[in-house]
Design brief:
By secondary structure, this protein is of the alpha+beta class. The protein is built from six helices and eight strands; from the N terminus they run βαββαβαβαββαβα. It has helices spanning 21-30, 53-68, 79-88, 112-116, 147-155, 164-174, and strands at residues 2-8, 34-39, 44-49, 74-78, 101-105, 125-129, 132-136, 160-163. The strands form two sheets. A four-stranded antiparallel β-sheet has the order 2-3-1-4, with helices on both faces. The radius of gyration is 16 Å and the shape is globular.
Amino acid sequence: MTRYVALLRAVNLGATRRVSMPRLREVLAERGYGDVRTHLASGNVLLESPLPEAELAADLTAAIAEHFALDVPVVIRTAEELADVLVADPLGHVATNPARYSVTFHAEPLDPERVAALPAAESGEYVVRGREVYVWLPDGLQSDRGAERTWAQLLGATGTNRNWNTVRKLVELTR
């Protein structure tokens, strides 16, 4: 069994795309996943499974569609991979507020040509490492409303974002 963290994209934002975390835990336990836990209502699931990453993501997406009638992309990281994200911390020397420092997780490796063509940051900084984009926005994410759409357009891939506090807590919960 591998310990995974499943990151659900864009759930429980406002009144739409509601996924009850207690019900989700029940659904996943019924599907045979071990030690299912959630953190916050923003779609962070910790669980154990023998499935490889891609199959696990597909099964979780199917379970959410079946039980909540939502199409929710799911990004998977092993506990080890998530800990490595924390250790890498390429912007820790400038990011002074962990609530405004975040990581966007992508399911697939990012296209190196698109990464090389990324423009300089307008405010703050970013670093692309593997399947993650580390983003430091000193004025906050709210100051850059089109950022997620822009990243998806620039990279040709949609990810799911977590702030540094959440990343740290998820790593802690996997230990």
